[in-house]
Amino acid sequence: MKKLRIGMLGTGFMARTHSNAYRRVNNFFNLAYEPELTAVCARNPATLKAFADQWGYASTETDWRKLVERDDIDVIDICLPNNLHAPVACAAAAAGKMVFTEKPLARETGEATAMCEAVEKAGVANMVWYNYRRVPAVTLAKQLVDEGRLGRIFHYRANFLQDWTISPDCPQGGNGTWRLDVATAGSGVTGDLLAHCIDTAIWINGPITAVTAMTETFIKERKNLDTGTVEKVGIDDACAFLARFKNGSLAIFESTRYARGHKALYTFEINGENASIAWDLHDLHRLQYFDHDDNSLIRGWHNIHVTDGDQPYMDKWWVPGLQIGYEHSFVHQAADAFEALAKGENPTPSFRDALETTKVCDAVLKSAATGQWVNL
Amino acid sequence: MKKLRIGMLGTGFMARTHSNAYRRVNNFFNLAYEPELTAVCARNPATLKAFADQWGYASTETDWRKLVERDDIDVIDICLPNNLHAPVACAAAAAGKMVFTEKPLARETGEATAMCEAVEKAGVANMVWYNYRRVPAVTLAKQLVDEGRLGRIFHYRANFLQDWTISPDCPQGGNGTWRLDVATAGSGVTGDLLAHCIDTAIWINGPITAVTAMTETFIKERKNLDTGTVEKVGIDDACAFLARFKNGSLAIFESTRYARGHKALYTFEINGENASIAWDLHDLHRLQYFDHDDNSLIRGWHNIHVTDGDQPYMDKWWVPGLQIGYEHSFVHQAADAFEALAKGENPTPSFRDALETTKVCDAVLKSAATGQWVNL
Amino acid sequence: MKKLRIGMLGTGFMARTHSNAYRRVNNFFNLAYEPELTAVCARNPATLKAFADQWGYASTETDWRKLVERDDIDVIDICLPNNLHAPVACAAAAAGKMVFTEKPLARETGEATAMCEAVEKAGVANMVWYNYRRVPAVTLAKQLVDEGRLGRIFHYRANFLQDWTISPDCPQGGNGTWRLDVATAGSGVTGDLLAHCIDTAIWINGPITAVTAMTETFIKERKNLDTGTVEKVGIDDACAFLARFKNGSLAIFESTRYARGHKALYTFEINGENASIAWDLHDLHRLQYFDHDDNSLIRGWHNIHVTDGDQPYMDKWWVPGLQIGYEHSFVHQAADAFEALAKGENPTPSFRDALETTKVCDAVLKSAATGQWVNL
Amino acid sequence: MKKLRIGMLGTGFMARTHSNAYRRVNNFFNLAYEPELTAVCARNPATLKAFADQWGYASTETDWRKLVERDDIDVIDICLPNNLHAPVACAAAAAGKMVFTEKPLARETGEATAMCEAVEKAGVANMVWYNYRRVPAVTLAKQLVDEGRLGRIFHYRANFLQDWTISPDCPQGGNGTWRLDVATAGSGVTGDLLAHCIDTAIWINGPITAVTAMTETFIKERKNLDTGTVEKVGIDDACAFLARFKNGSLAIFESTRYARGHKALYTFEINGENASIAWDLHDLHRLQYFDHDDNSLIRGWHNIHVTDGDQPYMDKWWVPGLQIGYEHSFVHQAADAFEALAKGENPTPSFRDALETTKVCDAVLKSAATGQWVNL
Question: Cβ separation of D305 and C308 shorter than 8 Å?
Answer without folding.
Answer: no
